[in-house]
Specification:
By secondary structure, the chain is an alpha/beta fold. It is built from five helices and four strands, in the order βαβαββααα.
Length: 149
């Protein structure tokens, strides 16, 4: 079996992601179920300040956010992308939503992946569909018995 091309990096912080193999398998299953092929997907875990600078520079937004997604695909139905995630936002959101940091991180990972798959979240209807898809694929993660603690 070839290596699943889902990579994890840290930028300006130290964070040890657990269960990388299971997360890779889960994200590949998500992408495949949506009818896409995975070429390469990079997750870059970073600080609020790092992501704020990216938001300002690339998106002209002057706000903190939990995730920014860059779709670098050149071939239809093929995934090549970079997903930047603020671990500070993840930690704050986990407290607010009363879930583990791992659970919130997985939700944001699949959220960013869904953006690369073409899902939007600006309108109420789009946000509802996005949340349904997040829940669907988080259920798939749970079925694979990936620990959430």
């Amino acid at each position: 079996m070839s290596k699943i091309a889902v990579n994890f990096f840290n930028e300006d912080l130290k964070y040890t992601l657990k269960q990388k193999t299971r997360i890779r398998t889960w994200l590949l299953a998500t992408i495949t179920k949506e009818g896409y092929a995975l070429e390469e997907l990079n997750f870059i875990l970073c600080s609020d300040e790092y992501l704020l600078k990216m938001n300002q520079e690339y998106l002209d937004h002057d706000t903190y956010t939990d995730v920014i997604t860059f779709d670098n695909s050149e071939t239809p139905k093929t995934i090549v992308g970079d997903i930047f995630i603020s671990m500070e936002r993840i930690q704050e959101n986990a407290k607010a939503f009363k879930c583990s940091v791992f659970e919130e991180l997985c939700r944001v990972m699949v959220h960013g992946t869904l953006h690369i798959l073409g899902y939007k979240d600006k309108s109420k209807a789009d946000k509802t569909l996005m949340t349904q898809k997040e829940d669907q694929y988080l259920g798939l993660l749970a079925e694979n018995k990936v620990p959430t603690k």
